[in-house]
Write a structure and sequence with these properties.
single chain; 189 residues; 2 domains; 44% strand; alpha+beta; globular; 9 strands
Length: 189
């Protein structure tokens, strides 16, 4: 009888752990696949850096109306999950130094705080596994300034990249509409 009770307790605990994941999958399926997901990354100085994120389009999926992204769909001064659906995930095999802060190897949620006039911030959070909203700012490991640039050709779909930096190390980039943001990093020695 005690074995039966123990087995039922283990099964119940397992179901409770799986239910949030099932809810996320159901929610993702209900979006109709309007925002595909992508994984991008690079090996920078022997350190694999990988980002997995949702890729919404500039056009409203319900009306095909072109949306204003920066200062519209993505409001200035507020934390944004950088994409759609699940929170954006960063995986790093070795510690990196970004914006003067060393971030240990591991997994992090990335989010972004855009600014119209001042410095926009790329944030690294230790809170993992969320849907992406609301952003849990109190779990920030670091917030670093992002360089803002205009791009010539409008980017219809939110795009991220991890690339080698010509000056050494690497760079995390995000692009949407006619704006690109970049944050350089180096691999900790």
């Amino acid at each position: 009888m005690n074995l039966l009770k123990s087995s039922l307790l283990i099964a119940a605990v397992g179901l409770v752990g799986v239910m949030p994941l099932m809810a996320q999958q159901k929610k993702a399926a209900s979006t109709g696949g309007n925002s595909p997901h992508e994984t991008t990354g690079a090996v920078i100085e022997g350190n694999r850096v990988t980002v997995t994120y949702g890729r919404p389009f500039s056009k409203n999926p319900k009306s095909d109306e072109v949306r204003k992204i920066w200062g519209g769909l993505v409001p200035y001064g507020k934390a944004w999950r950088m994409g759609s659906d699940e929170a954006t995930l960063l995986l790093i095999q070795k510690p990196i130094v970004i914006g003067g802060t060393t971030i240990p190897a591991g997994a992090y949620t990335l989010y972004f705080v855009p600014s119209e006039d001042g410095a926009s911030k790329l944030a690294f959070s230790s809170s993992l596994g969320g849907w992406g909203v609301p952003v849990i700012e109190k779990t920030d490991v670091a917030r670093v300034d992002a360089k803002k640039e205009s791009v010539e050709k409008s980017v219809d779909q939110f795009t991220m990249a991890v690339e080698k930096n010509a000056a050494g190390g690497g760079v995390i980039k995000l692009m949407w509409e006619k704006t690109a943001f970049s944050v350089p990093f180096t691999v900790a020695k």
